[in-house]
Amino acid sequence: MSGTEEGFELSWQSFTLKAAGQEITGITGCKYAQKVTREMVYGASPYPVGRTSGKVENEESSITFLELALREFLAALGNGYGRKPFEIVAQYGDIGTPVYTDILERCMLSGDGEGGGEEGTDAFKREVPFTFMRLKRNGLYIIDRRR
pTM for this structure? Predict the structure, then answer.
């Protein structure tokens, strides 16, 4: 079963983002992902006899800020903002749905996006790349550390 009784699915209006403790509404996009890389283990057989438990690799991540929101965020991080770790809390939820929470731990900016603009009526935006150490989706990690 999918959606709510009214037929609604989660959408951009269902998304809230807090970074470095402040809610940021001046964003138009946010993307992050992770994957597990494993190797197949072969013995004296053409078929695998097992696989490694693997390692978690975090994909390229970014937040697309409206220009003024980015300026406020960088000012809040302060001088040396490219070396200041922070946490991101992304929440998804709407009327009739549970609230799902993703926590991106120990984030750090890896740039501040391409500046400038073009003639027209569009607001200035900057896609700002960042890295993170671990992602907890609704309290769950992709691999349990077991330690």
Answer: 0.87
Give the amino acid at 110: S
Q: Which long-range contacts (CB under 8 A, 24 or more apart) does 72-76 make?
A: 72/26, 73/19, 73/20, 73/22, 73/24, 74/112, 76/20, 76/22
Among 101, 96, 99, 100, smallest CA distance to 7 is for 96
Number of domains in the chain: 1
116 found inside a domain:
yes
Q: Tell whether 69 is covered by a domain.
A: yes
Neighbours of 131 (CB within 10 A): 15
Which residue range is the domain that position 75 belongs to?
Answer: 12-33+62-137
96 contacts 5 by C-beta, under 8 angstroms: yes
Q: Measured between alpha carbons, how far is 93 from 16 in angstroms, rounded to an integer? A: 9
pLDDT tens-digit readout, 92-142: 998 888 999 999 999 999 999 888 888 999 999 999 999 999 999 999 999
pLDDT digit string, tens, across residues 36-71: 999 999 999 999 999 999 999 999 999 999 999 999
Look at residue 143 and tell me if it is in a domain. no
Rg (CA), the chain: 19
**48 falls within a domain:** no
